[in-house]
Write a structure and sequence with these properties.
The chain is an alpha/beta fold. The chain has two domains: 160 residues, NAD(P)-binding Rossmann-like Domain (Rossmann fold); 120 residues, N-(1-d-carboxylethyl)-l-norvaline Dehydrogenase, domain 2 (Orthogonal Bundle), CATH 1.10.1040. The chain contains twelve helices and eight strands. Strands 3-2-1-4-5-6-7-8 form an eight-stranded mixed beta sheet, with helices on both faces. Helix 3 packs parallel to helix 5, helix 10 runs antiparallel to helix 11 and helix 11 packs across helix 12. The radius of gyration is 23 Å and the shape is elongated. The N and C termini lie far apart (47 Å). The chain binds NADPH dihydro-nicotinamide-adenine-dinucleotide phosphate. The site of NADPH dihydro-nicotinamide-adenine-dinucleotide phosphate has 21 residues, from helix 1 and helix 4.
Length: 295
């Protein structure tokens, strides 16, 4: 593959919202782009912008030097990549899997790829479709460093920052799954807060400016917790677990008084109480990461 994006040929398999955004960014950067999707018709706008619409996944793979797959999960990716003719067409080419799933699935796919002479990089996308092709996009990658370096100029067409996290192929998925843990727990917390506020006659719009204030408190807390966890020091000065657990109990009580499920908060409070039971009540909340890891 050439070092110049505009002389490269890329294939995008999977044209959901993210696959379409990726293919669009390649096209905008002048990369020859072939696209394919299980359900036909999703390539219409891309073809109008200059993409080649392949009739089969095998045909699509044959057209590209770099094959990007981005579908709902690895079961779907396997369904596309593992039938014999597609696997044969992938031999000798580079496959970049930007589908989200678990580290175990990434390692399994790497073993399958190695067994079929397919050069494999595993990645994840940490930002929404609207960021793709802009400086705000965030991509993480894992796999052989030389393979990553070879394809970095073309991947740069997707915009944003690209970080190679190491050769261990499960590493991008490990970051992805941990970061999505933060995201989905926060989103679940926010939707629960909206329900609780509404039950108290507070509209989502009224709460939102204050909710954003809560969000702004988190980045410095993340930094502090990272230091605490890495150093094994859990200073609870200012906000010990005993105080946090009392606040959590209020949320549970107020929710359940309105008949609102408080299962998520009950689970978090349960871990905090376990930490207190082990004598960590005066520690900061980051102690819970250590308690959870010890099972
Ligand atoms: P989806 O996660 O809904 O994936 C849709 C794509 O998966 C479509 O191309 C769909 O094909 C394909 N697909 C689903 N099941 C199968 C199957 N059994 N066989 C073949 N193809 C299948 O939407 P996105 O495009 O948004 O996401 C793609 C990936 O990108 C996911 O892993 C997601 O987590 C990740 N991602 C998405 C972000 C976003 O903002 N959307 C942000 C960051 C990461 P068909 O049209 O035929 O159904």
């Amino acid at each position: 593959m050439s070092m110049h994006p505009e002389q490269s040929a890329v294939t995008v398999l999977g044209l959901g919202p993210m696959g379409r955004a990726l293919a669009g960014a390649f096209l905008d950067a002048g990369v020859r782009t072939t696209v394919w999707n299980r359900t036909p018709g999703r390539d219409r706008d891309l073809v109008a912008r200059g993409a080649v619409g392949a009739r089969t996944a095998e045909e699509a793979v044959t057209a590209g030097g770099l094959i990007v797959v981005c579908v709902v999960n690895y079961d779907a990716a396997d369904g596309i990549l593992r039938p014999g003719p597609v696997t044969d067409a992938l031999k000798g080419r580079t496959l970049v899997n930007l589908t989200a799933d678990t580290p175990v699935r990434a390692r399994d796919t790497a073993r399958w790829a190695a067994g079929h002479g397919i050069r494999y990089l595993d990645g994840a996308i940490m930002t929404p479709t609207t960021t793709i092709g802009t400086p705000a996009a965030v991509f993480i990658h894992a796999g052989p460093a030389d393979l990553y370096e070879e394809h970095r100029p073309v991947l740069a067409a997707l915009g944003g920052t690209h970080t190679h996290l190491g050769e261990e192929i499960g590493r991008a998925a490990a970051y992805d799954i941990a970061l999505l843990d933060i995201f989905w727990t926060a989103v679940a917390g926010y939707t629960h807060a909206l329900a609780l506020a509404r039950a108290e006659g507070v509209t989502a719009g009224e709460l939102a400016p204050f909710a954003k204030g809560i969000g702004a408190i988190l980045p410095p807390l993340f930094e502090q917790a990272a230091q605490d966890v890495d150093n094994g020091t859990f200073s609870g000065e200012g906000n010990p677990i005993t105080s946090a657990v009392s606040s959590m109990a209020h949320i549970i009580e107020a929710s359940e008084a309105h008949g609102i499920d408080a299962g998520v908060m009950r689970a978090a409070e349960g871990v905090a109480r376990r930490a207190i039971g082990r004598g960590h009540g005066a520690d900061g909340f980051a102690r819970l990461a250590e308690v959870l890891a010890r099972h």
